[in-house]
Design a protein that fits this description.
The protein has 2 domains: about 5-260 and about 460-485, Aldehyde Dehydrogenase, Chain A, domain 1, CATH 3.40.605; about 265-450, Aldehyde Dehydrogenase, Chain A, domain 2, CATH 3.40.309. Helix 3 (about 50-70) packs across helix 9, helix 4 (about 70-90) packs antiparallel against helix 6 (about 105-125) and helix 11 (about 275-285) crosses helix 12 (about 305-320). The strands form 5 sheets. Strands 12-13-14-11-10-16-17 form a 7-stranded mixed beta sheet, sandwiched between helices. The protein has a 6-stranded mixed beta sheet with strand order 7-6-5-8-9-19, with helices on both faces. Helix 15 (about 425-435) links the parallel strand 16 (about 420-425) and strand 17. By secondary structure, the protein is α/β, with parallel strands linked by helices. It has helices at about 5, 10-20, 50-70, 70-90, 90-100, 105-125, 165-175, 190-200, 215-225, 240-250, 275-285, 305-320, 340-355, 405-410, 425-435, 470-475, and strands at about 30-35, 40-45, 130-135, 140-150, 150-155, 180-185, 210, 230-235, 255-260, 265-270, 295-300, 355-360, 375-380, 395-400, 415, 420-425, 440-445, 460, 465, 475-485. About 40% of the residues lie in helices and about 20% in strands. Keywords: Oxidoreductase.
Length: about 475
């Protein structure tokens, strides 16, 4: 433990509170949470087991009938109080998030408020879970459709957005009348615990929101996916793990929302506004040091503007400070852990060994530890590992193309289909390309502006279901047909 009071006083205060709150989670063992920027230990949290997960499911099951019976207005009132408490302490939650995850403090605080907005939006949208009256097939019968909460939900959330990925799952579940058990990532459990603490203060009944902190994700996930009382699983993470969870859920035919891996193309056409495209590239590639599922992974630039785009991108990236996220000047923080930096280092080394050129970076950062230098690579060929891998780091591989048809084929040549981006001015091209790209989300002259009202999710091996929007709310309901004889 180091002197948090000096470097993050707001986080120090709320950490004291949240550790006292977390003291109720009794476990035989604990595991440590570390700051990825410094390697210093922040705290120890309960290392819960399969038995603890079963107890959390039992609590959620017991709480479900009463929570489901509440009116949407009653549930919304509690959710709005929760939203208000998060906003009141957003700066403290942002500091705590940066400490355990590493992203720059401006991004962390932005994530906290972004995540809180899902709570407010779904609190209101829950009042609009409308049913239907279907024209009857006979004069003495009536046909109605109602939507009811699916039941207990199991949520498994990632470390890259440890606050927003929880609220984006929990808010629609709660608004629909479900109760929930959350397994946060072992690298970032503190953001989950602080949200649960504030939820209790907001007045959620016992058992409605349950946290299971554990160092062994497979052990807890195995319980969530096999337990008959859990009727839905919502997971954000890798495609490999998502497929395993889908297999494990087959035994009880649970509903699934899977937000999985991506291999996002970023296309720059010759009629693009290059300065706008560079600004978009920075946002799409370097937010959270490239550790997002919608990060641009492959940059395709039309040949006639490729050299100029690379020049402008290099100048823009060079100007971004790398450092500890608690430093207000930092724009690029560390990777989450040593495994992450080893992976990125290996992908870049493989590319360089096979003939790629590092126009910028190409190695670990001089700061050492979990920091990787922002990197721009040219001369990428299909045999390089990063041509197909999800990089999850601050590395931008640049490719050249000549025709629209060629780049659409290249962009779609992947089993993934989460997000895609392109920059162009011709309105016909914008519609042609947007419709031809096989992705669940497409940004045309725009980095994806995710917000609670819009659906988030992918096609192909990037997942099933949607988060956010009315579609995401309906994913937490079951449709019931009522046939009534008069």
């Amino acid at each position: 433990m180091y002197d948090l009071i000096k470097i993050a006083p707001l986080a120090a205060d709320i950490l004291t509170e949240v550790l006292a709150f977390a003291g109720r989670y009794k476990a035989q063992k604990t595991f440590a949470v570390y700051n990825p920027a410094t390697g210093a230990k922040i705290a120890d949290v309960a290392d819960m087991t399969a038995a603890d997960c079963e107890a959390a499911i039992a609590a959620a099951s017991a709480a479900f009938p009463a929570w489901a019976r509440k009116t949407a207005i009653e549930r919304a009132a509690i959710m709005r109080r929760w939203h208000g408490l998060i906003y009141e302490r957003k700066d403290a939650l942002g500091q705590l998030l940066t400490l355990e995850q590493g992203k720059p403090i401006t991004e962390a605080t932005g994530e906290v408020t972004f995540g809180a907005n899902f709570i407010e939006w779904f609190a209101e949208e829950g009042k609009r879970l409308y049913g239907d009256v279907i024209p009857s097939h006979a004069p003495d019968k009536r046909c109605l459709v109602i939507k009811q909460p699916v039941g207990v939900v199991g949520a498994i959330t990632p470390w890259n957005f440890p606050s927003a990925m929880i609220t984006r799952k929990v808010a629609p579940a709660l608004a629909a009348g479900c109760t929930i058990v959350i397994k946060p990532a072992e690298d970032t459990p503190l953001s989950a615990l602080v949200l649960a603490m504030l939820a209790e203060q907001a007045g959620f009944p016992d058992g409605v929101i349950n946290i299971v902190t554990a160092s062994s994700a497979p052990e807890v996930a195995g319980v969530l996916t096999s337990h008959p009382d859990v009727r839905k699983i919502s997971f954000t993470g890798s495609t490999r793990v998502g497929k395993l969870l889908m297999q494990q859920c087959a035994g009880t035919l649970k509903k699934l929302s899977l937000e999985l891996g991506g291999n996002a193309p970023f296309i720059v056409f010759d009629d693009a506004d290059l300065d706008a495209a560079v600004a978009g590239a920075i946002a799409a590639k370097l937010r959270n040091a490239g550790q997002t599922c919608v990060s641009a992974n492959r940059f395709y630039v039309q040949k006639s503007v490729a050299a100029e785009f690379a020049k402008r991108l290099k100048a823009a990236v060079e100007a971004l400070p790398v450092g500890d996220g608690l430093d207000g000047n930092t724009r690029i923080g560390p990777l989450i852990n040593t495994a992450a930096i080893d992976k990125v280092s290996g992908l870049v080394k493989d590319a360089l060994d096979k003939g790629a050129t590092a126009e910028l970076g190409g190695a670990r950062h001089d700061r050492g530890g979990n920091f990787y230098a922002p990197t721009i690579l040219t001369g990428i060929t299909p045999d390089m590992e990063l041509a197909t891998a999800e990089i999850f780091g601050p590395v931008a591989p640049l490719y050249e193309f000549e025709t629209e048809d060629e780049v659409i084929k290249l962009a779609n040549d992947t089993p993934y289909g989460l997000a895609a981006y392109f920059w162009a001015r011709d309105i016909g091209r914008i519609f042609r390309v947007a419709e031809a790209l096989e992705y669940g989300m497409v940004g045309a002259n725009e980095v994806l502006s995710s917000n609670p009202a819009t659906p988030f999710g992918g096609v192909k091996e990037s997942g099933v279901g949607r988060e956010g929007s009315r579609y995401g709310l309906e994913d937490f309901t079951e449709i019931k047909y009522l046939a009534i004889g008069l």
